[in-house]
Amino acid sequence: MLASNGSKTWLRRLHAIIGILSSLNLLMMLSSGLLMQHRETFGLEDRVISRTFLPASYRTSDGTEGVRADIVVTDLHSGRIFGPIGLIALDVITLSWAVLLLSGIFIFTSKQLRLRAVDERTKIAMRVSQEKAQMDRRSLA
Questions:
Q1: Are 58 and 65 in contact, with CB atoms under 8 Å apart?
Q2: Residue 82's closest CA among 31, 28, 26?
Q3: In the Cβ-directed half-sphere of 128, how many Cα atoms lie within 13 Å?
Q4: pTM of the entire predicted model
Q5: What share of the chain is helix, strand, coil (3-state, %, to 5)?
């Protein structure tokens, strides 16, 4: 059975909200992944990120000046830059991506099934109409 309009509306809203919030994570993952892939091109191994831009508890053993940029980018990509909470947050965001994927598939397939059902009803109505017209012509002859 197809979902009712109320549940579809709720699902579409949930899909949109998760999509908007997750897009921030996707943007961060894409940019940090690109930086990781081209760390030599951007010279990240030679650059240092100042402690003023980093969480206070992040890699304190690396000194007071800062942390190498390639390490910061890798830790940002994995969520480790924010400690255990960052790892949990990344897990929650990953699960939200799964919900987004599944809800998108459900929304798409339910619409396709609905369109097919309407198409079938239209075909049946046309057949009935044609048969009725044929019967009317026979009765007139």
A1: no
A2: 28
A3: 6
A4: 0.61
A5: 85, 5, 15
Average pLDDT over residues 66-74: 93
> 84 or 3, which is more confident?
84
Phi first, then psi: give them for residue 49, nearest 5 degrees. -90, 125
> DSSP readout, 92-133?
HHHHHHHHHHHHHHHHHHHHHHHHHHHHHHHHHHHHHHHHHH
How do the domains of the chain map onto residue ranges? 5-102
At 46 the pLDDT is 92
Contact 73, 44 (CB under 8 A): yes
pLDDT at 24 over 90: no
**Looking at the DSSP assignment, which residues form a beta bridge with residue 132?**
none
CA angle 107, 110, 113 (to 5 degrees): 150
Name the DSSP letter for residue 54: S
Show Cβ contacts of residue 50 under 8 Å, excluding neighbours closer than 6 positions: 65, 66
